[in-house]
Amino acid sequence: MIIGSSYSLDPNSGVMVWGVMALPKDGIQVLGLLFHAHLLGRHVKARHFRKYEELPPLGEDANYDFNYQEYRYYQDEVRIFPGDQVTVECTYDSRTRNFTTFGGESTREEMCLAFFLYYPRMERFASVSVPQFDVISEALRRNFTKVDMYRGNLEEELLNYNWKMANVDRIEKALRFGLHETHCYFGNGVKNSVSGNCCCEAAKAFKIIVYLLEHHY
């Protein structure tokens, strides 16, 4: 199983991005995991949530090094039940670069992945997420659309974006708590997509607001 994200990184800073894993209704038993990022990766963490409450992390590497990647096996297997959420967060350090870094397969690009060892086997091989376009537009104070992506305008805009004038904390917060598009790719070639909060703190806050409004009116 692969959990990951699509994103771009501004130069001279690090912005967290994350992915969400969709589970089969019967749940899975996890034996261990392997984190994967590229040259800018510094900290990777797999967070585990159940009913909006955070459980002990499924794994964390606060000193991630691209040259030292290996599977981490648990002493005790971890059960992930239906309705649980796993969020993979990556922190990057791009202060040595003066250009925008994109997500991709090259080691000069970036990734944020977690490979899980688990059973029983699922007919699914990947679950990835990306912030919605309106979230990206609002965060960067631009008017991006999917048309821009198809025409290649989005990449050009990000390459020429003035990151020195950007509020990195605001951008990170927007991406962290904004809506994401999550895509689950099944082993039979079927793709299933949903929209939602990638961060349980955001979903919990939204649930509290709705509860207060419903009970106030």
TrEMBL record:
Organism domain of life:
Eukaryota
Arranged from A to Z, the UniProt key words for this protein are: Disulfide bond, Glycoprotein, Monooxygenase, Oxidoreductase
What is an annotated GO biological process for this record, any one? octopamine biosynthetic process
Q: Where is the Copper type II ascorbate-dependent monooxygenase C-terminal domain?
A: 21-124
Q: Under the GO molecular function aspect, what terms does this record hold? A: copper ion binding; dopamine beta-monooxygenase activity
Is Cell membrane given among the entry's keywords? no
InterPro entries annotated for this entry? Answer: Cu2_ascorb_mOase-like_C, Cu2_monoox_C, DBH-like, PHM/PNGase_F_dom_sf
User: Which Pfam families does the UniProt record give?
Assistant: Cu2_monoox_C
GO CC terms on record? extracellular space; secretory granule membrane
- Keyword NAD among UniProt keywords: no
The family assignment reads: Belongs to the copper type II ascorbate-dependent monooxygenase family.
* Record's protein name: DBH-like monooxygenase protein 1
* UniProt organism field: Caerostris extrusa (Bark spider)
Q: What is the lineage of its organism?
A: Eukaryota, Metazoa, Ecdysozoa, Arthropoda, Chelicerata
